[in-house]
Amino acid sequence: MESGVNAKITPERSLTLLSSKEVNRLKDKSEGGLYGLFRRCSLAVLNCGNESDDSKAILAAHAQFDIKVVQQPRGIKLEVSNAPVSAFVDDVMIKGIKEHLFAVLRDIVYANTVLKKSTNFNLERSEDITDFIFHILRNAEILIPGRTPDIVVCWGGHSISRFEYDYTKEVGHQLGLRDLNVCTGCGPGAMKGPMKGAAIAHAKQRIISGRYIGITEPGIIAAESPNPIVNELTIMPDIEKRLEAFVRVGHGIIVFPGGAGTAEEILYILGVLLHPANKDMPFPLIFTGSKRNESYFQMIDEFIAKTLGDAARQRYKIIIDEPRRVAEEIKAGIEEVRKYRRYHSDAYYFNWLLHIDPIFQKPFKPTHNNMRNLQLHRNQEDYLLASNLRCAFSGIVAGNVKAEGILAVEQNGPFEIRGEQEIIAPLEELLNAFVRENRMKLPGEKYVPSYRIVD
């Protein structure tokens, strides 16, 4: 490995001033301090382009990396030591990476020293969680009033083949030609492809205000470092707030092939839409891939049919190998969203009317005990089953790529997943297919399952 770079960086767009108390919390290496969180997220941003999805291995490979906040009378600077060489050109940090680095600082300071300390937020209450998310997004300038709905959330795997990546790029291109903007989880693969395609289309249409929004969280950011096309980055405190941010900011969702993380996202949005309070709300949701992915979406559709039933299947369309039609359908769906929001006097920039049950907002900690006790049975509402299935996939993602989850599996063995056979059998079938198709890790890496199915 090349020796790291030492540098001092001055902010340009985000957060030029910090209080002494905020600086001290960023320096604090104790459990209550923010140093560890800030260092991990900063390293992930600086490690852009270096392909590895093992958060624990990335942290170990850059054990000498350090970052400090330097407070000066005219503002702040960041001082990095042994930073990844790839983040610099001629010893000067790449501008986009620099913007992402200060976005990390902005969001960590705001969420952990402003919002969490405020008596206005009780994060045990559903409406306060939504308000908390709104404030983070507003502070990051993600929410822009006065714009008609135009944000398409794109979900899909970071570990995908070249032909799958090219298809995501073509769909993004068709979206961009229609003046639509893209929001993804900000990483590589199916998160980067739509942004790249949209960026080229925006250039063709002479659109200079194209938005490529990346929404991430501390547990996943190292495995999915922000790709260089992202021009609006925000870090939510956990995966549940990240998912809620997606569905409240976006006006429609496109899902490309992926693995456990994509399955988690699918189950989240279906669970939300299956709640009776959202029965009549328009929310365009399209699953799409190339002709070679047709069997993949048949498999996803069968899994949903066997577990959640036909009511869930009515909430999405599957479109195979037709990028133009995908863009046309999602644009038409977004027009219905615009009419609905206008009729109900809801904001275009944040979906306040969408009901999200507290079960989808409560952070799920993927411990062995919590994974073992998931309620995977028929005797519950469909949206509750979707929530429990979502948690199962969330735990598998943690065991695959998140440092904390990897360590837990190394120390105590695979997570155990158990439940009724009519739920567990299709779940195991889907997971086995993900393993066979190399959707659990980046290509070339041997996958050792982080889970085992228990009858």
Written account of the structure:
The mean pLDDT is 91. The strands form four sheets. A seven-stranded parallel beta sheet has the order 9-8-7-6-10-11-12, sandwiched between helices. It is globular, with a radius of gyration of 21 Å. α16 (382-401) crosses α17. The protein has helices at residues 20-27, 35-46, 55-61, 95-115, 126-139, 162-177, 192-204, 218-221, 239-249, 260-274, 294-307, 310-313, 323-343, 358-361, 368-372, 382-401, 403-412, 421-436; strands at residues 5-9, 66-72, 75-83, 88-89, 92-93, 151-155, 181-184, 212-216, 232-235, 252-255, 285-289, 317-320, 415-418, 451-454. It contains 18 helices and 14 strands. It has 455 residues and is α/β, with parallel strands linked by helices. The chain has two domains: 5-117, MoCo carrier protein-like (MCP/YpsA-like), CATH 3.30.1850.10; 122-455, Rossmann fold, CATH 3.40.50.450. Residues 334-454 form the Pyrimidine/purine nucleotide 5'-monophosphate nucleosidase C-terminal domain. One of its GO terms (molecular function) is AMP nucleosidase activity. Pfam families: DUF4478, Lysine_decarbox, PpnN_C.
